[in-house]
Amino acid sequence: MDDRQIIALFLERSEQAVTELSSKYGTLCTRVATNILNDPQDAEECVNDAYLGVWNTVPPREPDPLVSYLFRIVRNLALKRYRHNVAAKRNSIYDVALDELEGCLAAVGLVEEALDARETARLINEFLATLEKEQRVLFVRRYWYADSIGELATLFDTSRHQISVRLSRIREKLKKHLIKEGVFV
Asked: Whole-model pTM?
């Protein structure tokens, strides 16, 4: 079933919509949440909450593309759960990915003073548009989907070291781009 048909089911308020959404994207949603949370039960709960979120927002919204809309909800719920779970602790799996980006982005308070979060997101999207497809996919898989270095090495059929080097170079380019655009890093 394609996304338009699934959205039509949501608009009709058919419970089949959630079943079809789960069937088509459930595995990927679970992977995104698990990569962030490192806990299958919490990940499953976030995915189910995301389905409820889509149910509650369609209608009136008709997201296009549906998959991006769903993944954004799953990721936001997983990040909210993550922050709750590790308020005073450190989760090495997701924190490692965030720590890698730390040198490219300013602290939250400074970002709010220099540019609002939307402007920073726009600049990052602008930067990503300048990358070759493989670099862009690598960056998004690491820092949006929180794929591990090992998973990326397998996906790109290369060594973990090579993936680390590529990510390091991309982060350095991002840092230069943000500095050029006036973001204090």
From this structure: 0.67
